[in-house]
Amino acid sequence: MLSNFVRQRAQGLLNVVARGFARIGFTPNRLTLVGFFATCSVGFFLATGNFVVGGLLIIATGAFDALDGALARLTNSASKFGAFLDSTTDRFAEGALFLGLLYWFNQRGVMGATYLVYLTLLGSLMVSYARARAEGIGVECKEGMVTRFERIALLVVSLLLSVWFGDAAILIALIILAVLTNVTAAQRIWLVYRATQ
């Protein structure tokens, strides 16, 4: 997955920054919550049409998503609750971003975007649920075409491209996400089926 590729190459930098947070007393869970609230606030910029600012802020706030894990490993403070908190807040934060887009397009009467956002969120939740449920029955299921990292990366690219292509860039990204998130959920269902036979 693309997320693993990026994380492996950025791990050294993440460790340096994580040590800095450790020195000033931050815990992994505190970093998770800071990243969560920061990402949720980006939804406001998307709702008001400040797409480039929103895209850049997603990149900045997304660093916390990797830093909390790096800090947990460096300080040997990884916990089951920390992993649960991280996954749960990720779902809420992603929802806040798409809520901002939903508001923007609804204000402009682009009702088709409502269905695209719904399908994207449904697919995103089912991708995560499929993994969680698989792990609940003892099957590891991290594979898939579009994980959270890829979803956010595609969203960020579309937000930045809106400088040249306007709302069309975001609508195209929503079409792709609406399809691929649900395809990824179906892919994970198939992989779990094969693993349990």
Question: What can you see in these coordinates?
Answer:
It is a single chain. This protein has 197 residues and is mainly α. It has a single domain, classed as CDP-alcohol phosphotransferase transmembrane (TM) domain (Four Helix Bundle (Hemerythrin (Met), subunit A)), CATH 1.20.120. The protein contains seven helices and no strands. The chain is globular.
What keywords describe this structure?
7 helices; 197 residues; mainly alpha
User: Describe the biggest sheet?
Assistant: none
Helix content: over 70%
- CATH homologous superfamily designation: CDP-alcohol phosphotransferase transmembrane (TM) domain
Unreliable residue runs: none
CATH class: Mainly Alpha
Q: Note the run of SSEs as H and E.
A: HHHHHHH
CATH architecture: Up-down Bundle
Oligomerization: single chain
Number of strands: 0
Determine Rg (CA atoms, Å). 17 Å
SSE topology sketch:
Elements: H1 2-23, H2 28-47, H3 51-74, H4 80-107, H5 111-136, H6 148-165, H7 167-196
Task: Give a brief rundown of this model.
With 197 residues, this protein is an all-alpha fold. The chain is built from 7 helices and no strands. α2 runs parallel beside α4 and α4 (80-107) runs antiparallel to α5 (111-136).
